[in-house]
Amino acid sequence: MSTMTDERTEQGRQDRLLRMGEPPRTQGEAWRKLVWILPWLVFLSSPVHDLAAGTHQPAATAAGWAGLAAFTGTYLALVFRNMGRPFSEPVVACMVAVLGVLAVVLTLTLGGAWIGLFVYVSVVCGTTFPLRVAYAAIPATTVVMVLVGQAVGAGAMWTLVLLVLLVGFAMTGVRQLVRTTIELRQARATVAQLAANEERLRLARDLHDLLGHSLSLITLKSELAGRMLPGHPDKAAQQVADIEQVSRQALVDVREAVTGYRRPRLAAELAGARVALAAAGVGCDLPAEPALDGVPEESESALAWALREAVTNVVRHSGARRCAVEVVRRQTLDGPMLELSVEDDGTGGSGGGPGNGLTGLAERLEKAGGLLEAGRLRRGFRLVARVPAAAGGNVGSRA
Predict the structure, then answer these.
(1) Contact, 384 vs 373, CB < 8 A?
(2) For 333-360, what is each residue's pLDDT tens digit?
(3) Cβ distance 116 to 44 under 8 Å?
(4) Between the N and C ends of the chain, which has fewer C-beta atoms within 10 Å?
(5) Averaged pLDDT, 87-110
(6) Is 383 in contact with 346 (CB distance < 8 Å)?
(7) Each residue of 145-161: b (16+ CB within 10 Å) or e?
(8) Are 216 and 315 in contact (CB under 8 A)?
Protein backbone atom coordinates (compact mmCIF):
# COMPACT_ATOMS: atom_id res chain seq x y z
CA MET A 1 0.00 0.00 0.00
CA SER A 2 2.84 2.35 0.88
CA THR A 3 4.54 1.62 -2.45
CA MET A 4 1.39 2.46 -4.40
CA THR A 5 1.02 5.73 -2.47
CA ASP A 6 4.63 6.64 -3.18
CA GLU A 7 4.15 5.90 -6.88
CA ARG A 8 1.05 8.09 -7.01
CA THR A 9 2.89 10.89 -5.22
CA GLU A 10 5.82 10.68 -7.64
CA GLN A 11 3.47 10.60 -10.62
CA GLY A 12 1.67 13.67 -9.30
CA ARG A 13 4.96 15.48 -8.89
CA GLN A 14 5.98 14.59 -12.44
CA ASP A 15 2.60 15.78 -13.74
CA ARG A 16 3.05 19.13 -12.02
CA LEU A 17 6.51 19.52 -13.48
CA LEU A 18 5.32 18.66 -16.95
CA ARG A 19 2.59 21.33 -16.94
CA MET A 20 5.18 23.94 -17.96
CA GLY A 21 4.12 25.70 -21.13
CA GLU A 22 0.49 24.53 -20.92
CA PRO A 23 -2.61 26.57 -20.08
CA PRO A 24 -3.95 26.12 -16.52
CA ARG A 25 -6.49 23.32 -16.21
CA THR A 26 -8.07 24.57 -12.98
CA GLN A 27 -8.45 27.79 -11.08
CA GLY A 28 -5.86 26.53 -8.59
CA GLU A 29 -3.29 26.11 -11.36
CA ALA A 30 -4.09 29.60 -12.64
CA TRP A 31 -3.43 31.05 -9.19
CA ARG A 32 -0.16 29.12 -8.86
CA LYS A 33 1.04 30.45 -12.21
CA LEU A 34 0.02 33.96 -11.19
CA VAL A 35 1.86 33.64 -7.87
CA TRP A 36 4.96 32.55 -9.81
CA ILE A 37 4.77 35.77 -11.85
CA LEU A 38 3.97 38.28 -9.09
CA PRO A 39 7.33 38.24 -7.24
CA TRP A 40 8.98 39.52 -10.41
CA LEU A 41 7.04 42.76 -10.05
CA VAL A 42 9.58 43.88 -7.44
CA PHE A 43 11.06 46.41 -9.89
CA LEU A 44 7.76 48.31 -9.75
CA SER A 45 8.43 49.25 -6.14
CA SER A 46 10.44 52.28 -7.21
CA PRO A 47 7.67 53.80 -9.40
CA VAL A 48 5.08 53.04 -6.70
CA HIS A 49 7.24 54.72 -4.06
CA ASP A 50 7.74 57.70 -6.38
CA LEU A 51 3.99 58.14 -6.84
CA ALA A 52 3.22 57.59 -3.16
CA ALA A 53 5.82 60.20 -2.10
CA GLY A 54 3.65 63.00 -3.50
CA THR A 55 6.46 64.73 -5.38
CA HIS A 56 4.36 65.22 -8.52
CA GLN A 57 1.35 67.36 -9.29
CA PRO A 58 -2.03 65.63 -8.74
CA ALA A 59 -2.66 65.37 -12.47
CA ALA A 60 0.78 63.87 -13.06
CA THR A 61 0.29 61.46 -10.14
CA ALA A 62 -3.10 60.33 -11.50
CA ALA A 63 -1.63 59.90 -14.97
CA GLY A 64 1.29 58.01 -13.45
CA TRP A 65 -1.02 55.59 -11.62
CA ALA A 66 -3.03 55.06 -14.82
CA GLY A 67 0.10 54.51 -16.89
CA LEU A 68 1.54 52.12 -14.29
CA ALA A 69 -1.74 50.16 -14.19
CA ALA A 70 -1.81 49.96 -17.99
CA PHE A 71 1.84 48.90 -18.09
CA THR A 72 1.40 46.22 -15.40
CA GLY A 73 -1.83 44.86 -16.93
CA THR A 74 -0.29 44.61 -20.38
CA TYR A 75 2.81 42.91 -18.99
CA LEU A 76 0.82 40.35 -16.94
CA ALA A 77 -1.47 39.61 -19.89
CA LEU A 78 1.49 38.94 -22.17
CA VAL A 79 3.40 36.75 -19.72
CA PHE A 80 0.38 34.87 -18.36
CA ARG A 81 -1.11 34.11 -21.77
CA ASN A 82 2.30 33.11 -23.11
CA MET A 83 2.31 30.20 -20.62
CA GLY A 84 -0.35 28.33 -22.56
CA ARG A 85 -2.40 30.06 -25.25
CA PRO A 86 -0.27 32.96 -26.50
CA PHE A 87 -1.66 35.88 -28.47
CA SER A 88 -1.11 36.04 -32.21
CA GLU A 89 2.18 37.55 -33.38
CA PRO A 90 0.66 40.88 -34.53
CA VAL A 91 -1.11 41.30 -31.17
CA VAL A 92 2.09 40.45 -29.30
CA ALA A 93 4.07 42.96 -31.36
CA CYS A 94 1.50 45.70 -30.64
CA MET A 95 1.41 44.95 -26.91
CA VAL A 96 5.21 44.95 -26.63
CA ALA A 97 5.29 48.24 -28.53
CA VAL A 98 2.74 49.65 -26.04
CA LEU A 99 5.00 48.55 -23.16
CA GLY A 100 8.01 50.16 -24.78
CA VAL A 101 6.17 53.43 -25.41
CA LEU A 102 4.80 53.49 -21.85
CA ALA A 103 8.26 52.83 -20.42
CA VAL A 104 9.78 55.67 -22.45
CA VAL A 105 6.96 58.18 -21.81
CA LEU A 106 6.62 57.46 -18.08
CA THR A 107 10.38 57.62 -17.51
CA LEU A 108 10.81 60.84 -19.46
CA THR A 109 7.85 62.57 -17.76
CA LEU A 110 8.10 61.24 -14.20
CA GLY A 111 11.84 60.77 -13.73
CA GLY A 112 14.62 58.23 -13.34
CA ALA A 113 12.73 56.21 -10.70
CA TRP A 114 10.78 54.67 -13.58
CA ILE A 115 13.79 53.39 -15.51
CA GLY A 116 13.21 49.88 -14.09
CA LEU A 117 10.23 49.47 -16.43
CA PHE A 118 12.66 48.57 -19.19
CA VAL A 119 13.45 45.36 -17.30
CA TYR A 120 9.89 44.19 -18.01
CA VAL A 121 10.11 45.24 -21.65
CA SER A 122 13.23 43.08 -21.95
CA VAL A 123 11.45 40.18 -20.23
CA VAL A 124 8.50 40.20 -22.64
CA CYS A 125 10.86 40.51 -25.61
CA GLY A 126 12.63 37.35 -24.43
CA THR A 127 9.44 35.42 -23.67
CA THR A 128 7.14 36.34 -26.53
CA PHE A 129 9.17 37.16 -29.62
CA PRO A 130 10.68 34.53 -31.94
CA LEU A 131 14.30 33.91 -30.98
CA ARG A 132 15.83 35.82 -33.90
CA VAL A 133 13.65 38.84 -33.15
CA ALA A 134 14.29 38.55 -29.41
CA TYR A 135 18.06 38.47 -29.93
CA ALA A 136 17.75 41.88 -31.66
CA ALA A 137 14.96 43.35 -29.52
CA ILE A 138 16.71 42.83 -26.17
CA PRO A 139 19.85 44.85 -27.08
CA ALA A 140 17.63 47.46 -28.74
CA THR A 141 15.63 47.80 -25.50
CA THR A 142 18.89 48.20 -23.60
CA VAL A 143 20.09 50.96 -25.94
CA VAL A 144 16.77 52.83 -25.62
CA MET A 145 16.96 52.51 -21.83
CA VAL A 146 20.49 53.98 -21.79
CA LEU A 147 19.43 56.92 -23.95
CA VAL A 148 16.34 57.61 -21.84
CA GLY A 149 18.33 57.19 -18.63
CA GLN A 150 20.89 59.72 -19.78
CA ALA A 151 18.10 62.13 -20.68
CA VAL A 152 16.59 62.00 -17.19
CA GLY A 153 19.88 61.64 -15.31
CA ALA A 154 19.19 58.17 -13.90
CA GLY A 155 21.93 56.60 -11.78
CA ALA A 156 23.39 53.07 -11.68
CA MET A 157 22.90 52.69 -15.41
CA TRP A 158 25.58 50.05 -15.92
CA THR A 159 23.94 47.79 -13.35
CA LEU A 160 20.63 48.19 -15.15
CA VAL A 161 22.28 47.54 -18.52
CA LEU A 162 23.63 44.21 -17.30
CA LEU A 163 20.31 43.38 -15.65
CA VAL A 164 18.23 44.12 -18.71
CA LEU A 165 20.53 42.12 -20.99
CA LEU A 166 20.87 39.15 -18.63
CA VAL A 167 17.18 38.96 -17.75
CA GLY A 168 16.11 39.22 -21.39
CA PHE A 169 18.47 36.53 -22.65
CA ALA A 170 17.73 34.36 -19.61
CA MET A 171 14.05 34.39 -20.57
CA THR A 172 14.92 33.15 -24.06
CA GLY A 173 16.67 30.22 -22.36
CA VAL A 174 13.60 29.58 -20.21
CA ARG A 175 11.46 29.59 -23.34
CA GLN A 176 13.67 26.99 -24.96
CA LEU A 177 13.57 24.90 -21.78
CA VAL A 178 9.78 25.01 -21.73
CA ARG A 179 9.62 24.11 -25.42
CA THR A 180 12.01 21.20 -24.87
CA THR A 181 9.90 20.01 -21.93
CA ILE A 182 6.76 20.06 -24.07
CA GLU A 183 8.50 18.21 -26.92
CA LEU A 184 9.82 15.59 -24.49
CA ARG A 185 6.35 15.10 -23.08
CA GLN A 186 4.92 14.68 -26.57
CA ALA A 187 7.73 12.30 -27.51
CA ARG A 188 7.13 10.24 -24.39
CA ALA A 189 3.42 10.02 -25.21
CA THR A 190 4.27 8.94 -28.77
CA VAL A 191 6.70 6.29 -27.56
CA ALA A 192 4.13 5.00 -25.09
CA GLN A 193 1.53 4.77 -27.87
CA LEU A 194 3.92 2.94 -30.18
CA ALA A 195 4.86 0.54 -27.39
CA ALA A 196 1.19 -0.14 -26.70
CA ASN A 197 0.53 -0.76 -30.40
CA GLU A 198 3.51 -3.12 -30.62
CA GLU A 199 2.32 -4.98 -27.53
CA ARG A 200 -1.15 -5.37 -29.02
CA LEU A 201 0.36 -6.74 -32.24
CA ARG A 202 2.55 -9.13 -30.27
CA LEU A 203 -0.41 -10.35 -28.25
CA ALA A 204 -2.52 -10.74 -31.41
CA ARG A 205 0.22 -12.83 -33.06
CA ASP A 206 0.67 -14.96 -29.96
CA LEU A 207 -3.03 -15.63 -29.50
CA HIS A 208 -3.45 -16.43 -33.20
CA ASP A 209 -0.57 -18.90 -33.12
CA LEU A 210 -1.60 -20.45 -29.81
CA LEU A 211 -5.33 -20.76 -30.38
CA GLY A 212 -5.11 -21.60 -34.08
CA HIS A 213 -2.89 -24.60 -33.37
CA SER A 214 -4.77 -25.82 -30.31
CA LEU A 215 -8.27 -25.34 -31.70
CA SER A 216 -7.33 -27.12 -34.94
CA LEU A 217 -6.12 -30.10 -32.90
CA ILE A 218 -9.26 -30.03 -30.75
CA THR A 219 -11.44 -29.97 -33.88
CA LEU A 220 -9.64 -32.94 -35.41
CA LYS A 221 -9.81 -34.99 -32.24
CA SER A 222 -13.48 -34.09 -31.77
CA GLU A 223 -14.22 -35.38 -35.28
CA LEU A 224 -12.28 -38.56 -34.55
CA ALA A 225 -14.13 -39.04 -31.27
CA GLY A 226 -17.46 -38.57 -33.03
CA ARG A 227 -16.60 -41.20 -35.65
CA MET A 228 -15.28 -43.65 -33.06
CA LEU A 229 -18.08 -43.21 -30.54
CA PRO A 230 -20.60 -45.73 -31.97
CA GLY A 231 -18.19 -48.65 -32.50
CA HIS A 232 -15.15 -47.86 -30.34
CA PRO A 233 -16.22 -45.98 -27.23
CA ASP A 234 -12.90 -46.74 -25.50
CA LYS A 235 -10.92 -45.07 -28.31
CA ALA A 236 -13.40 -42.18 -28.37
CA ALA A 237 -12.85 -41.73 -24.65
CA GLN A 238 -9.09 -41.52 -25.29
CA GLN A 239 -9.66 -38.82 -27.88
CA VAL A 240 -11.84 -36.90 -25.42
CA ALA A 241 -9.07 -37.19 -22.82
CA ASP A 242 -6.63 -35.84 -25.37
CA ILE A 243 -9.01 -32.95 -26.08
CA GLU A 244 -9.14 -32.13 -22.39
CA GLN A 245 -5.35 -32.19 -22.17
CA VAL A 246 -4.95 -29.95 -25.23
CA SER A 247 -7.57 -27.54 -23.88
CA ARG A 248 -5.83 -27.29 -20.53
CA GLN A 249 -2.48 -26.72 -22.21
CA ALA A 250 -4.01 -24.07 -24.47
CA LEU A 251 -5.36 -22.28 -21.42
CA VAL A 252 -1.92 -22.34 -19.80
CA ASP A 253 -0.29 -21.10 -23.03
CA VAL A 254 -2.74 -18.22 -23.35
CA ARG A 255 -2.15 -17.16 -19.76
CA GLU A 256 1.60 -17.26 -20.25
CA ALA A 257 1.35 -15.35 -23.53
CA VAL A 258 -0.78 -12.63 -21.94
CA THR A 259 1.69 -12.16 -19.12
CA GLY A 260 4.52 -12.01 -21.64
CA TYR A 261 6.54 -14.90 -20.21
CA ARG A 262 5.98 -17.60 -22.76
CA ARG A 263 8.93 -18.54 -24.97
CA PRO A 264 8.22 -21.71 -26.94
CA ARG A 265 11.02 -24.24 -27.29
CA LEU A 266 11.84 -25.85 -30.59
CA ALA A 267 12.07 -29.37 -29.12
CA ALA A 268 8.63 -29.05 -27.54
CA GLU A 269 7.15 -27.76 -30.78
CA LEU A 270 8.64 -30.67 -32.72
CA ALA A 271 6.95 -33.08 -30.33
CA GLY A 272 3.69 -31.15 -30.62
CA ALA A 273 3.96 -31.15 -34.43
CA ARG A 274 4.35 -34.94 -34.43
CA VAL A 275 1.14 -35.33 -32.40
CA ALA A 276 -0.83 -32.83 -34.50
CA LEU A 277 0.21 -34.34 -37.84
CA ALA A 278 -0.50 -37.87 -36.64
CA ALA A 279 -3.95 -36.85 -35.41
CA ALA A 280 -4.67 -35.32 -38.84
CA GLY A 281 -3.60 -38.49 -40.62
CA VAL A 282 -0.59 -36.81 -42.21
CA GLY A 283 2.57 -38.88 -42.51
CA CYS A 284 5.44 -36.93 -41.04
CA ASP A 285 9.20 -36.95 -41.27
CA LEU A 286 10.58 -34.95 -38.35
CA PRO A 287 14.15 -34.63 -37.12
CA ALA A 288 15.34 -35.66 -33.69
CA GLU A 289 15.81 -32.96 -31.07
CA PRO A 290 18.21 -30.48 -32.71
CA ALA A 291 21.42 -29.28 -31.09
CA LEU A 292 20.86 -25.65 -30.13
CA ASP A 293 24.16 -24.84 -28.41
CA GLY A 294 24.90 -21.13 -28.70
CA VAL A 295 21.60 -20.31 -30.40
CA PRO A 296 20.06 -17.13 -28.90
CA GLU A 297 16.83 -17.67 -27.03
CA GLU A 298 15.05 -15.17 -29.27
CA SER A 299 16.12 -17.08 -32.38
CA GLU A 300 14.93 -20.42 -30.97
CA SER A 301 11.62 -18.88 -29.92
CA ALA A 302 11.04 -17.37 -33.38
CA LEU A 303 11.83 -20.69 -35.07
CA ALA A 304 9.48 -22.54 -32.72
CA TRP A 305 6.68 -20.13 -33.65
CA ALA A 306 7.48 -20.70 -37.32
CA LEU A 307 7.18 -24.47 -36.88
CA ARG A 308 3.88 -24.11 -35.05
CA GLU A 309 2.41 -21.86 -37.74
CA ALA A 310 3.63 -24.10 -40.55
CA VAL A 311 2.23 -27.29 -39.01
CA THR A 312 -1.07 -25.56 -38.22
CA ASN A 313 -1.39 -24.55 -41.88
CA VAL A 314 -0.57 -28.08 -43.02
CA VAL A 315 -3.26 -29.54 -40.75
CA ARG A 316 -5.93 -26.98 -41.52
CA HIS A 317 -5.48 -26.02 -45.15
CA SER A 318 -3.20 -28.28 -47.15
CA GLY A 319 -5.01 -31.61 -47.47
CA ALA A 320 -1.52 -33.12 -47.50
CA ARG A 321 -0.65 -36.77 -47.01
CA ARG A 322 3.03 -36.22 -46.21
CA CYS A 323 4.94 -33.49 -44.42
CA ALA A 324 8.70 -33.23 -44.02
CA VAL A 325 10.39 -31.02 -41.43
CA GLU A 326 14.11 -30.29 -41.48
CA VAL A 327 16.27 -28.22 -39.11
CA VAL A 328 19.83 -27.56 -40.25
CA ARG A 329 22.69 -25.17 -39.56
CA ARG A 330 24.12 -23.27 -42.50
CA GLN A 331 27.13 -21.01 -42.81
CA THR A 332 26.23 -17.91 -44.81
CA LEU A 333 27.78 -14.54 -45.59
CA ASP A 334 25.77 -13.19 -42.67
CA GLY A 335 27.24 -15.75 -40.30
CA PRO A 336 25.89 -19.06 -38.98
CA MET A 337 22.17 -19.49 -39.52
CA LEU A 338 19.64 -21.99 -38.21
CA GLU A 339 17.19 -22.96 -40.92
CA LEU A 340 13.78 -24.59 -40.53
CA SER A 341 12.12 -26.10 -43.59
CA VAL A 342 8.54 -27.44 -43.63
CA GLU A 343 7.36 -29.01 -46.90
CA ASP A 344 4.09 -30.81 -47.68
CA ASP A 345 2.54 -32.42 -50.75
CA GLY A 346 -0.90 -30.91 -50.31
CA THR A 347 -3.10 -29.02 -52.72
CA GLY A 348 -4.78 -26.74 -50.18
CA GLY A 349 -4.43 -23.05 -50.88
CA SER A 350 -2.54 -20.28 -49.34
CA GLY A 351 -5.08 -17.93 -50.90
CA GLY A 352 -4.25 -14.95 -53.03
CA GLY A 353 -1.58 -13.79 -50.60
CA PRO A 354 -0.10 -14.39 -47.18
CA GLY A 355 -2.61 -14.73 -44.37
CA ASN A 356 -2.49 -13.19 -40.93
CA GLY A 357 -0.47 -16.09 -39.57
CA LEU A 358 2.35 -15.81 -42.14
CA THR A 359 2.34 -12.00 -41.93
CA GLY A 360 2.69 -12.10 -38.16
CA LEU A 361 5.33 -14.81 -38.45
CA ALA A 362 7.38 -12.74 -40.88
CA GLU A 363 7.26 -9.81 -38.45
CA ARG A 364 8.33 -12.03 -35.58
CA LEU A 365 11.27 -13.44 -37.54
CA GLU A 366 12.33 -9.98 -38.65
CA LYS A 367 12.46 -8.82 -35.03
CA ALA A 368 14.73 -11.78 -34.25
CA GLY A 369 17.03 -10.84 -37.15
CA GLY A 370 15.75 -13.59 -39.44
CA LEU A 371 13.60 -13.91 -42.52
CA LEU A 372 10.78 -15.99 -43.94
CA GLU A 373 10.34 -17.59 -47.36
CA ALA A 374 7.09 -19.31 -48.23
CA GLY A 375 5.55 -20.34 -51.52
CA ARG A 376 3.86 -23.05 -53.54
CA LEU A 377 5.80 -25.81 -55.21
CA ARG A 378 4.84 -27.78 -58.30
CA ARG A 379 2.98 -30.01 -55.86
CA GLY A 380 2.71 -28.84 -52.34
CA PHE A 381 3.88 -25.93 -50.24
CA ARG A 382 7.22 -25.05 -48.65
CA LEU A 383 8.03 -22.74 -45.79
CA VAL A 384 11.60 -21.81 -44.87
CA ALA A 385 12.49 -19.78 -41.79
CA ARG A 386 16.04 -18.65 -41.02
CA VAL A 387 17.35 -17.08 -37.82
CA PRO A 388 20.83 -16.24 -36.55
CA ALA A 389 22.51 -19.21 -34.88
CA ALA A 390 24.83 -16.96 -32.90
CA ALA A 391 24.42 -13.71 -31.01
CA GLY A 392 24.85 -10.62 -33.16
CA GLY A 393 23.65 -12.14 -36.44
CA ASN A 394 21.13 -10.18 -38.48
CA VAL A 395 20.20 -11.72 -41.78
CA GLY A 396 17.20 -9.48 -42.07
CA SER A 397 19.42 -6.45 -42.63
CA ARG A 398 20.67 -7.59 -46.01
CA ALA A 399 19.32 -5.86 -49.07
Answers:
(1) yes
(2) 878 899 999 999 887 654 445 566 788 8
(3) yes
(4) C
(5) 89
(6) no
(7) bbebbeeeebeeeeebb
(8) yes
